[in-house]
Amino acid sequence: MPAAVCALFALSPGPAAAADGDGALPAVSAVPPQGGGCVRPSPRKMTQVPWPQRYIAPSRAWDTTRGEGVTVAVVDTGVDAGYSPALAGRVVAGPDVTTGAAHAAGTDCVGHGTFVAGLIAAAELPGQGFAGVAPRARVLAVRVTDRDGAASADHVAAGIGAAVAGGARVVDVPLALPRGSAALTAAVRDAQRHGALVVAPAYGEADPSASGDPDAPAPAAYPAALDGVLAVASLGPGGAPNQRAAPRTAPDIAAPGTAVMSVGPGGPGHFTGSGADLATGFVAGAAALVGAAHPESTPAQVRARLLATAYPMVTAGRPLVGAGTVDPSAAVSTPMPTGATPEAAAPAPFALAARASHRGRGTAVAVAGGALGAALLTGFAAFTVARARRRGWRPGI
Q: Above 80 in pLDDT, residue 294?
Protein backbone atom coordinates (compact mmCIF):
# COMPACT_ATOMS: atom_id res chain seq x y z
CA MET A 1 0.00 0.00 0.00
CA PRO A 2 1.21 3.53 -0.62
CA ALA A 3 3.24 5.09 2.17
CA ALA A 4 2.10 8.59 1.22
CA VAL A 5 -0.08 9.08 4.27
CA CYS A 6 0.23 12.30 6.24
CA ALA A 7 1.27 11.79 9.87
CA LEU A 8 -1.46 14.08 11.10
CA PHE A 9 -4.95 14.33 9.64
CA ALA A 10 -7.47 17.15 10.09
CA LEU A 11 -10.72 16.11 11.76
CA SER A 12 -13.88 16.96 9.83
CA PRO A 13 -17.27 17.09 11.59
CA GLY A 14 -20.13 15.12 10.14
CA PRO A 15 -23.14 17.19 9.08
CA ALA A 16 -26.57 15.61 8.92
CA ALA A 17 -28.17 15.29 5.53
CA ALA A 18 -31.24 17.47 5.32
CA ALA A 19 -34.27 15.85 3.74
CA ASP A 20 -36.87 17.56 1.63
CA GLY A 21 -39.59 18.36 4.09
CA ASP A 22 -39.32 18.13 7.86
CA GLY A 23 -36.41 16.56 9.72
CA ALA A 24 -33.20 14.86 8.76
CA LEU A 25 -32.78 11.60 6.95
CA PRO A 26 -32.69 8.53 9.22
CA ALA A 27 -29.26 6.99 9.82
CA VAL A 28 -28.13 3.58 8.70
CA SER A 29 -25.36 1.59 10.36
CA ALA A 30 -23.89 -1.92 10.16
CA VAL A 31 -25.82 -3.30 13.14
CA PRO A 32 -29.57 -3.65 13.79
CA PRO A 33 -31.42 -0.93 15.71
CA GLN A 34 -30.67 -0.92 19.42
CA GLY A 35 -34.32 -1.54 20.20
CA GLY A 36 -34.33 -4.73 18.16
CA GLY A 37 -36.05 -5.61 14.93
CA CYS A 38 -35.13 -4.40 11.48
CA VAL A 39 -34.43 -0.92 10.14
CA ARG A 40 -37.68 0.79 9.30
CA PRO A 41 -38.22 2.20 5.81
CA SER A 42 -37.31 5.84 5.43
CA PRO A 43 -40.31 8.12 4.88
CA ARG A 44 -38.13 10.89 3.46
CA LYS A 45 -36.59 11.59 0.08
CA MET A 46 -34.02 14.10 -1.07
CA THR A 47 -34.34 15.59 -4.53
CA GLN A 48 -31.11 17.59 -4.53
CA VAL A 49 -27.81 16.14 -5.72
CA PRO A 50 -25.91 15.03 -2.57
CA TRP A 51 -22.54 16.59 -1.86
CA PRO A 52 -20.48 13.44 -2.64
CA GLN A 53 -21.94 13.19 -6.16
CA ARG A 54 -21.09 16.85 -6.73
CA TYR A 55 -17.64 16.44 -5.22
CA ILE A 56 -16.37 13.45 -7.23
CA ALA A 57 -18.72 14.07 -10.19
CA PRO A 58 -19.17 10.52 -11.52
CA SER A 59 -21.67 11.78 -14.09
CA ARG A 60 -18.74 13.21 -16.09
CA ALA A 61 -17.84 9.61 -16.95
CA TRP A 62 -21.33 8.59 -18.03
CA ASP A 63 -20.93 9.70 -21.66
CA THR A 64 -18.36 6.89 -21.86
CA THR A 65 -19.89 4.29 -19.56
CA ARG A 66 -22.37 3.83 -16.73
CA GLY A 67 -20.92 0.49 -15.69
CA GLU A 68 -22.79 -1.75 -18.13
CA GLY A 69 -21.75 -5.37 -18.06
CA VAL A 70 -19.85 -5.25 -14.76
CA THR A 71 -21.03 -7.09 -11.64
CA VAL A 72 -20.07 -5.64 -8.26
CA ALA A 73 -20.48 -7.91 -5.23
CA VAL A 74 -21.51 -6.34 -1.92
CA VAL A 75 -20.23 -8.70 0.77
CA ASP A 76 -22.14 -7.40 3.76
CA THR A 77 -25.61 -7.62 5.35
CA GLY A 78 -27.54 -8.43 2.16
CA VAL A 79 -29.24 -6.12 -0.33
CA ASP A 80 -32.98 -5.43 -0.36
CA ALA A 81 -33.89 -4.43 -3.90
CA GLY A 82 -37.55 -5.48 -3.79
CA TYR A 83 -38.78 -2.15 -2.43
CA SER A 84 -36.17 0.16 -3.93
CA PRO A 85 -36.96 1.43 -7.44
CA ALA A 86 -33.35 2.59 -7.75
CA LEU A 87 -32.07 -0.99 -7.46
CA ALA A 88 -34.99 -2.90 -8.98
CA GLY A 89 -34.08 -5.53 -11.54
CA ARG A 90 -30.32 -5.28 -11.17
CA VAL A 91 -29.56 -7.09 -7.91
CA VAL A 92 -28.84 -10.82 -7.83
CA ALA A 93 -29.41 -12.48 -4.45
CA GLY A 94 -26.38 -14.57 -3.57
CA PRO A 95 -25.89 -16.82 -0.55
CA ASP A 96 -25.93 -16.19 3.18
CA VAL A 97 -22.64 -17.83 4.10
CA THR A 98 -23.43 -17.77 7.83
CA THR A 99 -26.34 -20.18 7.33
CA GLY A 100 -25.39 -21.81 4.05
CA ALA A 101 -28.68 -20.76 2.49
CA ALA A 102 -28.45 -20.12 -1.24
CA HIS A 103 -30.05 -16.98 -2.72
CA ALA A 104 -30.82 -15.71 0.80
CA ALA A 105 -29.00 -12.36 0.61
CA GLY A 106 -31.86 -10.60 -1.18
CA THR A 107 -33.18 -9.26 2.11
CA ASP A 108 -31.48 -6.81 4.45
CA CYS A 109 -32.73 -6.34 7.99
CA VAL A 110 -29.83 -4.05 8.88
CA GLY A 111 -29.83 -1.85 5.77
CA HIS A 112 -26.06 -1.41 5.50
CA GLY A 113 -25.56 -3.57 2.42
CA THR A 114 -28.50 -1.94 0.63
CA PHE A 115 -27.05 1.50 1.40
CA VAL A 116 -23.64 0.53 -0.04
CA ALA A 117 -25.26 -1.06 -3.10
CA GLY A 118 -27.07 2.22 -3.74
CA LEU A 119 -23.83 4.19 -3.60
CA ILE A 120 -22.40 1.84 -6.19
CA ALA A 121 -25.25 1.31 -8.63
CA ALA A 122 -28.51 3.10 -7.80
CA ALA A 123 -30.26 4.06 -11.04
CA GLU A 124 -30.97 7.59 -12.16
CA LEU A 125 -34.64 8.27 -11.41
CA PRO A 126 -36.75 11.25 -12.51
CA GLY A 127 -37.08 13.90 -9.84
CA GLN A 128 -34.22 12.57 -7.70
CA GLY A 129 -30.71 13.99 -7.50
CA PHE A 130 -29.19 10.83 -6.09
CA ALA A 131 -27.70 8.08 -8.26
CA GLY A 132 -24.91 5.57 -7.81
CA VAL A 133 -21.47 6.02 -9.30
CA ALA A 134 -22.08 3.25 -11.85
CA PRO A 135 -25.86 3.36 -12.30
CA ARG A 136 -26.02 0.50 -14.82
CA ALA A 137 -23.71 -1.94 -13.07
CA ARG A 138 -25.22 -5.09 -11.60
CA VAL A 139 -24.98 -5.98 -7.92
CA LEU A 140 -24.43 -9.42 -6.42
CA ALA A 141 -25.54 -9.52 -2.78
CA VAL A 142 -23.66 -11.85 -0.42
CA ARG A 143 -24.46 -11.91 3.30
CA VAL A 144 -21.58 -12.58 5.73
CA THR A 145 -22.97 -11.06 8.94
CA ASP A 146 -24.99 -12.54 11.79
CA ARG A 147 -28.11 -11.06 13.39
CA ASP A 148 -26.01 -8.52 15.27
CA GLY A 149 -24.25 -7.35 12.12
CA ALA A 150 -20.96 -8.99 13.17
CA ALA A 151 -18.76 -10.92 10.75
CA SER A 152 -15.79 -13.25 11.15
CA ALA A 153 -12.74 -13.36 8.90
CA ASP A 154 -13.65 -16.84 7.72
CA HIS A 155 -17.21 -15.82 6.85
CA VAL A 156 -15.87 -12.86 4.88
CA ALA A 157 -13.48 -15.24 3.13
CA ALA A 158 -16.41 -17.47 2.17
CA GLY A 159 -18.31 -14.39 1.01
CA ILE A 160 -15.47 -13.29 -1.24
CA GLY A 161 -15.34 -16.79 -2.66
CA ALA A 162 -19.09 -16.68 -3.37
CA ALA A 163 -18.67 -13.29 -5.04
CA VAL A 164 -15.96 -14.61 -7.34
CA ALA A 165 -18.00 -17.71 -8.14
CA GLY A 166 -20.90 -15.40 -9.02
CA GLY A 167 -18.85 -13.56 -11.63
CA ALA A 168 -18.12 -10.34 -9.72
CA ARG A 169 -15.34 -8.23 -11.17
CA VAL A 170 -15.36 -5.88 -8.18
CA VAL A 171 -15.88 -7.14 -4.61
CA ASP A 172 -16.83 -4.48 -2.06
CA VAL A 173 -16.33 -5.67 1.53
CA PRO A 174 -17.49 -2.68 3.63
CA LEU A 175 -16.23 -4.25 6.86
CA ALA A 176 -13.16 -3.54 9.01
CA LEU A 177 -12.23 -6.63 10.99
CA PRO A 178 -9.63 -6.54 13.80
CA ARG A 179 -7.79 -9.59 12.48
CA GLY A 180 -7.54 -11.70 9.38
CA SER A 181 -7.21 -15.41 8.81
CA ALA A 182 -5.47 -17.80 6.48
CA ALA A 183 -8.77 -18.35 4.71
CA LEU A 184 -9.27 -14.62 4.19
CA THR A 185 -5.78 -14.18 2.75
CA ALA A 186 -6.35 -17.11 0.40
CA ALA A 187 -9.74 -15.75 -0.67
CA VAL A 188 -8.27 -12.35 -1.58
CA ARG A 189 -5.50 -14.00 -3.60
CA ASP A 190 -8.01 -16.23 -5.36
CA ALA A 191 -10.18 -13.22 -6.21
CA GLN A 192 -7.21 -11.51 -7.84
CA ARG A 193 -6.36 -14.64 -9.84
CA HIS A 194 -9.94 -14.77 -11.10
CA GLY A 195 -10.00 -11.12 -12.19
CA ALA A 196 -11.75 -9.47 -9.24
CA LEU A 197 -10.60 -6.36 -7.37
CA VAL A 198 -11.37 -6.34 -3.62
CA VAL A 199 -12.23 -2.99 -2.01
CA ALA A 200 -12.44 -2.48 1.77
CA PRO A 201 -12.27 0.30 4.42
CA ALA A 202 -8.87 1.14 5.88
CA TYR A 203 -10.47 1.56 9.31
CA GLY A 204 -13.80 1.18 11.02
CA GLU A 205 -15.97 3.15 13.37
CA ALA A 206 -14.75 5.19 16.30
CA ASP A 207 -15.19 4.09 19.89
CA PRO A 208 -13.77 6.88 22.11
CA SER A 209 -14.15 4.66 25.19
CA ALA A 210 -11.74 2.07 23.78
CA SER A 211 -8.67 4.27 24.23
CA GLY A 212 -7.65 7.04 26.55
CA ASP A 213 -6.17 8.88 23.56
CA PRO A 214 -8.79 10.19 21.12
CA ASP A 215 -6.01 10.87 18.60
CA ALA A 216 -4.62 7.33 18.67
CA PRO A 217 -4.27 5.73 15.21
CA ALA A 218 -7.05 3.42 14.17
CA PRO A 219 -5.95 -0.21 14.41
CA ALA A 220 -5.23 -2.44 11.46
CA ALA A 221 -8.32 -3.43 9.48
CA TYR A 222 -8.92 -6.58 7.47
CA PRO A 223 -9.27 -7.36 4.61
CA ALA A 224 -7.93 -3.88 3.75
CA ALA A 225 -4.53 -4.70 5.28
CA LEU A 226 -3.97 -7.57 2.83
CA ASP A 227 -1.85 -7.19 -0.32
CA GLY A 228 -3.80 -6.15 -3.38
CA VAL A 229 -6.90 -4.95 -1.52
CA LEU A 230 -7.81 -1.33 -2.26
CA ALA A 231 -7.94 0.32 1.19
CA VAL A 232 -10.32 3.30 1.40
CA ALA A 233 -10.33 6.30 3.74
CA SER A 234 -13.27 8.62 4.43
CA LEU A 235 -13.49 12.32 3.60
CA GLY A 236 -15.90 14.98 4.80
CA PRO A 237 -17.39 17.85 2.77
CA GLY A 238 -14.58 19.85 1.23
CA GLY A 239 -12.21 16.89 1.22
CA ALA A 240 -10.98 16.97 4.82
CA PRO A 241 -9.86 13.56 6.19
CA ASN A 242 -11.84 12.36 9.18
CA GLN A 243 -8.88 10.92 11.08
CA ARG A 244 -6.51 12.86 13.33
CA ALA A 245 -3.72 10.29 13.08
CA ALA A 246 -2.80 8.10 10.15
CA PRO A 247 -4.52 4.70 10.60
CA ARG A 248 -2.34 1.62 10.98
CA THR A 249 -3.70 0.23 7.73
CA ALA A 250 -2.46 2.87 5.31
CA PRO A 251 -5.23 4.06 2.97
CA ASP A 252 -4.62 3.70 -0.74
CA ILE A 253 -7.33 6.14 -1.80
CA ALA A 254 -10.04 8.33 -0.29
CA ALA A 255 -13.71 8.99 -1.03
CA PRO A 256 -16.61 10.85 0.57
CA GLY A 257 -17.70 9.15 3.76
CA THR A 258 -19.27 11.78 6.03
CA ALA A 259 -23.03 12.44 5.85
CA VAL A 260 -23.42 10.55 2.60
CA MET A 261 -26.84 9.62 1.28
CA SER A 262 -28.23 6.47 -0.30
CA VAL A 263 -31.21 4.15 -0.46
CA GLY A 264 -32.19 1.60 2.17
CA PRO A 265 -34.46 -1.38 2.73
CA GLY A 266 -38.23 -1.45 2.75
CA GLY A 267 -39.07 1.45 0.47
CA PRO A 268 -37.93 4.20 -1.87
CA GLY A 269 -36.88 6.65 0.87
CA HIS A 270 -33.33 7.81 1.53
CA PHE A 271 -30.98 7.30 4.47
CA THR A 272 -27.75 8.92 5.61
CA GLY A 273 -24.60 7.49 7.15
CA SER A 274 -20.90 8.07 7.74
CA GLY A 275 -17.75 6.00 7.68
CA ALA A 276 -14.93 4.59 5.59
CA ASP A 277 -17.08 1.50 5.18
CA LEU A 278 -19.56 3.58 3.19
CA ALA A 279 -16.80 5.41 1.31
CA THR A 280 -15.92 2.06 -0.26
CA GLY A 281 -19.12 2.26 -2.30
CA PHE A 282 -17.83 5.25 -4.26
CA VAL A 283 -14.52 3.52 -4.99
CA ALA A 284 -16.20 0.24 -5.95
CA GLY A 285 -18.51 2.15 -8.28
CA ALA A 286 -15.54 3.89 -9.89
CA ALA A 287 -13.86 0.51 -10.32
CA ALA A 288 -16.99 -0.73 -12.11
CA LEU A 289 -16.81 2.23 -14.49
CA VAL A 290 -13.15 1.45 -15.23
CA GLY A 291 -13.96 -2.22 -15.73
CA ALA A 292 -16.71 -1.38 -18.19
CA ALA A 293 -14.59 1.14 -20.12
CA HIS A 294 -11.47 -1.03 -20.11
CA PRO A 295 -12.73 -4.62 -20.07
CA GLU A 296 -9.27 -6.02 -20.80
CA SER A 297 -7.86 -4.64 -17.53
CA THR A 298 -6.64 -6.94 -14.76
CA PRO A 299 -7.51 -6.18 -11.11
CA ALA A 300 -3.99 -4.77 -10.65
CA GLN A 301 -4.48 -2.49 -13.65
CA VAL A 302 -7.89 -1.28 -12.46
CA ARG A 303 -6.38 -0.58 -9.05
CA ALA A 304 -3.41 1.23 -10.59
CA ARG A 305 -5.65 3.33 -12.81
CA LEU A 306 -7.77 4.44 -9.85
CA LEU A 307 -4.68 5.40 -7.87
CA ALA A 308 -2.89 7.06 -10.78
CA THR A 309 -5.85 9.30 -11.56
CA ALA A 310 -6.88 10.14 -7.99
CA TYR A 311 -7.20 13.83 -7.22
CA PRO A 312 -4.50 14.61 -4.65
CA MET A 313 -5.03 17.22 -1.97
CA VAL A 314 -1.33 17.94 -1.53
CA THR A 315 0.39 19.17 1.61
CA ALA A 316 4.18 19.53 1.87
CA GLY A 317 4.40 18.07 -1.61
CA ARG A 318 2.65 14.81 -0.72
CA PRO A 319 -0.96 13.64 -1.10
CA LEU A 320 -2.85 14.02 2.16
CA VAL A 321 -4.52 10.59 2.06
CA GLY A 322 -3.01 7.79 0.00
CA ALA A 323 -2.99 8.64 -3.69
CA GLY A 324 -5.82 11.17 -3.20
CA THR A 325 -9.56 11.30 -3.79
CA VAL A 326 -11.13 8.90 -6.26
CA ASP A 327 -11.90 10.60 -9.58
CA PRO A 328 -14.26 8.38 -11.62
CA SER A 329 -14.12 10.43 -14.80
CA ALA A 330 -10.33 10.67 -14.87
CA ALA A 331 -10.03 6.98 -14.07
CA VAL A 332 -12.13 6.14 -17.11
CA SER A 333 -10.69 8.61 -19.58
CA THR A 334 -7.03 9.28 -18.72
CA PRO A 335 -4.58 7.46 -21.03
CA MET A 336 -2.12 5.33 -19.09
CA PRO A 337 1.54 5.76 -20.06
CA THR A 338 2.59 3.25 -22.70
CA GLY A 339 4.37 0.29 -21.16
CA ALA A 340 3.68 1.39 -17.59
CA THR A 341 3.38 -1.37 -15.00
CA PRO A 342 0.72 -1.25 -12.27
CA GLU A 343 3.44 -0.65 -9.70
CA ALA A 344 4.86 2.29 -11.63
CA ALA A 345 1.46 3.84 -12.15
CA ALA A 346 0.51 4.18 -8.47
CA PRO A 347 0.31 6.58 -6.78
CA ALA A 348 0.99 8.39 -9.99
CA PRO A 349 3.54 10.97 -10.93
CA PHE A 350 1.26 11.81 -13.84
CA ALA A 351 -1.84 12.34 -11.66
CA LEU A 352 -2.31 16.09 -12.00
CA ALA A 353 -1.84 17.85 -8.67
CA ALA A 354 -3.76 20.96 -9.75
CA ARG A 355 -6.45 19.76 -12.13
CA ALA A 356 -8.41 22.98 -12.55
CA SER A 357 -11.00 21.34 -14.78
CA HIS A 358 -12.28 19.08 -11.98
CA ARG A 359 -15.66 20.71 -11.59
CA GLY A 360 -17.92 20.25 -8.61
CA ARG A 361 -15.50 20.60 -5.70
CA GLY A 362 -16.31 24.21 -4.89
CA THR A 363 -20.04 23.74 -5.29
CA ALA A 364 -19.90 20.58 -3.21
CA VAL A 365 -18.68 22.53 -0.21
CA ALA A 366 -21.52 25.01 -0.61
CA VAL A 367 -24.04 22.22 -0.95
CA ALA A 368 -22.64 20.54 2.14
CA GLY A 369 -23.21 23.73 4.11
CA GLY A 370 -26.64 24.43 2.68
CA ALA A 371 -28.50 21.38 1.49
CA LEU A 372 -26.87 19.07 4.02
CA GLY A 373 -26.95 21.55 6.89
CA ALA A 374 -24.51 22.03 9.72
CA ALA A 375 -26.11 19.97 12.49
CA LEU A 376 -24.77 16.59 13.54
CA LEU A 377 -27.05 13.59 13.26
CA THR A 378 -29.08 13.37 16.46
CA GLY A 379 -27.67 10.64 18.61
CA PHE A 380 -25.38 9.41 15.85
CA ALA A 381 -22.24 9.44 17.98
CA ALA A 382 -23.90 7.45 20.74
CA PHE A 383 -25.28 4.99 18.19
CA THR A 384 -21.89 4.35 16.61
CA VAL A 385 -20.20 3.86 19.98
CA ALA A 386 -22.79 1.22 20.82
CA ARG A 387 -22.17 -0.44 17.47
CA ALA A 388 -18.42 -0.58 18.06
CA ARG A 389 -18.89 -2.13 21.49
CA ARG A 390 -21.23 -4.78 20.14
CA ARG A 391 -18.76 -5.75 17.41
CA GLY A 392 -15.84 -6.07 19.79
CA TRP A 393 -13.30 -3.91 18.03
CA ARG A 394 -12.10 -0.33 18.08
CA PRO A 395 -12.38 1.24 14.67
CA GLY A 396 -11.24 4.76 14.05
CA ILE A 397 -13.78 7.10 12.44
A: yes
